[in-house]
Amino acid sequence: MQDKIKNNLLKQQDSDLLASLKNLVIIALTDNKGKLIYANEKFSDLLGVTKENTLGRCNHLLKSHVPNRASYVEIWSTLQAGEAWKGVLPHKTNTKKYWLETTIKPLKNNQGDVVKYLTLCNDISNYYSHPVYSKEKHLIGNFANETIYINKCGKIINTSRSVFNSSNDSFVGCFIYDFVNPSDQEYLRKEVKRVFDTGETSKYKSIGLCPKEKETTFITKIKPVVNLHDEIIYATISSKKLKAKVKAKDELKAMELKYSNIFQSINVGIIVVANSSGDIIEWNKGAELAFGYTETQIIGEPLTVLISKKHVATGVKELLKAVENLDNNMYGENIEMLGLKKNGQEFPVEFTISHWKNGEEDFYCAIMLDISKRKKLEEKLKTTTKDLELFLYRAAHDLKAPLTSAEGLLNLLKEEKMNDRSTQVIDMLDETLEKSRSLLDDLAFASIVSEKKRAISIIDFETEISKVLTQLKGTENFDNIVFETDIQQTTDFHFNQELIKFVFQNLIQNAIIYSRPITDNHIPKIQIEVKALDANTHIIITDNGQGIGQEHIDKIFNLYYKISSRNPQSTGLGLFVIKRIVEDLNGDILVKSELNQGTSFEVILPNLF
Amino acid sequence: MLIDDNKIDLFINQRIIEKYNSEINTRVFTSAISAISFLKILELNVGIKSLTVPDVILVDINMPEMDGFTFFKEFKQLRLLEKYAIEVYMVSSSICPSDIFKAQKENNCSGYIMKPLTVDKFKSVVHKSVSINQEQNFKEII
User: Fold this and answer.
1) A441: nearest CB among B95, B116, B118
2) Does the N-terminal or the C-terminal CB of chain A have fewer CB atoms within 10 Å?
């Protein structure tokens, strides 16, 4: 009898207990597929659903509360493993936001298979809406160097003194997660779990919120604390500010300031243009001085406003060509153009363009030089050179007149009767006059080299060479010399006839002058080779004469340079003038020689179409 | 007729001609303007014994006031060439190609002589003037 009463009392106790629990806690029961089989009143009230339509819908409800897929996966994997999952889930209704401390426990039957899932939720919204949270949420900065003690769930169980400059009672019982950047909450949750599970210390970087600076990097350390039995009882969590980030930002600012200053201070104009539109996006002081536009006036305008109206078409063409070259990775191009100032004045300007990519956009930077001064000097130089050449020509020309008179007089004198001494003197006078004559002829010729190049005709090498040889017939040793001519031609050679004649005449004359006299062992030979290619012609004169010593070979092209005074007719100008011709027309002249063996001159002249 | 502003050159030329043939008469002028004036008078007074028309005129190119080419232009306007065969030679100390080219272009200019005048050079001048051709083509440079 007593047992029966006892049983009844116990039963009553149980049902009373169950009823109380039902009223206090949110309970739900699902089958092993996640379908809802039982939910208490609090569950339906909270979730705002009727008993009828909750059945079968537990999955969705659960899903909607889980912050992301990863946690959802985590929850289910925990459950699949037969373990209970504990965590905080948010729940929003139209009026309020709830925080539910949730435990989901799998219920197994005698065989050990999971048949049901029991969900228990505790409404802890009060803690979350605790005034402390909203007030102190942004005072993360004070975390630095302070330690907070947390339990497995992340609940603060104690703090070291002085955190938040107020009593720590208000924080004990709160969850650490509210004090961290929402984007880090998930990670922190994981780390806390890991620390408690594995006993390892966790250290990681995160970005926190600070009242003084906008964003600060923190290093957070979670250390587990063990008791005498080697069980983890709680963990300490502390955060330290990472000063380096601040430093990096300052450095970046300083660098930007430095380059900005350099950019502004440069005296030459710099214009930076973006590709797609060709508009000006940067403008510095130098550009303002040169063109007259201030930064505000010119930014956004197309580059073409800076080009003189007449040249816009050609200018743009040249710019595009330069841009194309740059895109093919060629180096900065130089373009000359006529720039247009704000006041309408035109002035010559030279651009150097460089190119870079910033992500998707192309940028072009034009550094410009005002070359008006330079251009003026160029013009002056051209006119001065022309004047000098004319002066030289006239001087040489005018000097000849009295010389020819002297020659004439000398001829008359020769007709007169005189003794040997007089004859000697007369002969020497003759020689002297002849020398002056050739000198002046050569000088006159030299002075108008650049003029002569204008009359271009097709050169007949055979005729020219034979003319020259005929002219030189009277020279000493001429008759003993064997001349070999070899002309190879693929195309017509266009050049000035006078200049070619001069080249042949002087080179062949030199070869004759410096030939060795004929002996039993030696026959003087002069080889005249012409190789006329499409782009240029090579004229090669080779002799087996005296050769040129090493000490002379660099100087032979100098003005008035003569190796020996052997031939009084040599003016010392021949090679000088040839060199001038070659330089003027971008040709070349090469000499090879060996003493007592011979000399070879090669003149390369471009084909002037 | 010799026209040259340089007296020495005139002297040389005269002596050379004398050397070649002392029979030849030479008339010298130091200025082309005075030569033109003379030729004008000549045109109007042909027949007077003392005024004979020259067979050959040697005129220097480089002269002040009126140079050789200008003289030649003026000379052609006198129309003496229509009645008489007169050889006109340009004389110069320069081998300036532009001068030579200019002389070539001139109609009725008989040639270009390079100073100094020599007997040989003069010989070739004279031999050409023997043939009485009104329209003489330009010969090579003597």
Assistant:
1) B95
2) N
Task: Find out whether B96 and A397 touch, Cβ atoms under 8 Å.
Answer: yes
For chain A, positions 498-517, list CB contacts with chain B under 8 A: 498
Measured between beta carbons, the chain A residues lying within 8 angstroms of B97 are: 498
> Is A67 in the same domain as A158?
no
pLDDT of residue B140: 46
Same structural domain, A458 and A602: yes
Quote the DSSP letter at residue A311: G
Q: What is the DSSP letter of A216?
A: E
A595 within 8 A of A468, measured Cβ to Cβ: no
Length of chain B: 142
| Residue A12, domain member (yes or no) | no
First to last CA, chain B: 18
Test the B interface: residue of A393, A405, A448, A505 with most B CBs within 10 Å = A405
**For the whole prediction, is pTM greater than 0.95?**
no
Task: Please indicate, yes or no, whether residues A283 and A365 belong to a single structural domain of this protein.
Answer: yes
At residue A331, the pLDDT reads 58
Q: Which of A335, A352, A340, A353 is nearest to A290 (CA)?
A: A340
CA gap A229, A235 in Å, rounded:
16
CB neighbours of A492 closer than 8 A, spacing ≥ 6?
A: A458, A459, A532
The CA-atom distances, in angstroms, between A310 and each of A277, A315, A337 are 22, 9, 11
Q: Which domain holds residue A477?
A: 454-606
Whether residue A429 is predicted with pLDDT greater than 80 in this model: the reply is yes
Q: Could you give the C-alpha distances from A79 to A105, A106, B58, in angstroms and in order?
A: 7, 6, 132
- B9 to chain A: which residues are within 8 Å by CB? 404-405, 408
Contacts of B97 (CB under 8 A, 6+ apart): A498
Q: What are phi and psi of B48, to 5 degrees?
A: -70, 130
Residue A445 has pLDDT above 80, yes or no: no
A494-529 pLDDT, tens digit each:
888 888 888 998 899 889 888 888 888 888 999 999
ipTM attached to this prediction: 0.77
Interatomic CA distance for residues A264 and A285, integer angstroms: 6
Residues A589 and A473 in one domain: yes
At A345-366, the pLDDT tens digits run 888 888 787 777 777 777 777 7
The DSSP code sequence of A4-60 is HHHHHHHHHHHHHHHHHHHHHSEEEEEETTS-EEEE-HHHHHHHT--HHHHTT-HHH
Q: How far is B22 from chain A (nearest CA, A)?
A: 15
Q: What is the mean pLDDT of residues A15-19?
A: 83
> How would DSSP label each residue in A455-504?
S-EE--HHHHHHHHHHHGGGSTTGGGPEEEEEEEESS--EE-HHHHHHHH
Return the HEC string of A366-413.
EEEEECHHHHHHHHHHHHHHHHHHHHHHHHHHHHHHHHHHHHHHHHHH
Domain boundary among A100, A126, A152: A126
